[in-house]
Amino acid sequence: MPKTKKKDHLDFQNMTPQEQLKFEIAQELGLGDQVIEKGWRSLTAKESGKIGGLMTKRKRELKQQAMGEGTEEIH
């Protein structure tokens, strides 16, 4: 029985918030067209790592803002 291969194309209508963030960061890095044309698998480990690192950073910043821990400091 042949294995089914997961489709690698992007479905912009049904993206989760995490997938939207991932694609947004890929676009910011100039990788959006490559991802659209060839899929996520076409990225190098370095490019994927950069996207993952920036996603983590962005999520951390959003979480801090939601908790009210903006950039304000009390002296």
Automatic annotation (TrEMBL):
<comment type="similarity">
    <text>Belongs to the alpha/beta-type SASP family.</text>
</comment>
<feature type="region of interest" description="Disordered">
    <location>
        <begin position="54"/>
        <end position="75"/>
    </location>
</feature>
<dbReference type="GO" id="GO:0006265">
    <property type="term" value="P:DNA topological change"/>
</dbReference>
<comment type="function">
    <text>SASP are bound to spore DNA. They are double-stranded DNA-binding proteins that cause DNA to change to an a-like conformation. They protect the DNA backbone from chemical and enzymatic cleavage and are thus involved in dormant spore's high resistance to UV light.</text>
</comment>
<dbReference type="InterPro" id="IPR001448">
    <property type="entry name" value="SASP_alpha/beta-type"/>
</dbReference>
<protein>
    <submittedName>
        <fullName>Alpha/beta-type small acid-soluble spore protein</fullName>
    </submittedName>
</protein>
<dbReference type="Pfam" id="PF00269">
    <property type="entry name" value="SASP"/>
</dbReference>
<dbReference type="InterPro" id="IPR038300">
    <property type="entry name" value="SASP_sf_alpha/beta"/>
</dbReference>
<keyword id="KW-0238">DNA-binding</keyword>
<dbReference type="GO" id="GO:0003690">
    <property type="term" value="F:double-stranded DNA binding"/>
</dbReference>
<dbReference type="InterPro" id="IPR018126">
    <property type="entry name" value="SASP_alpha/beta-type_CS"/>
</dbReference>
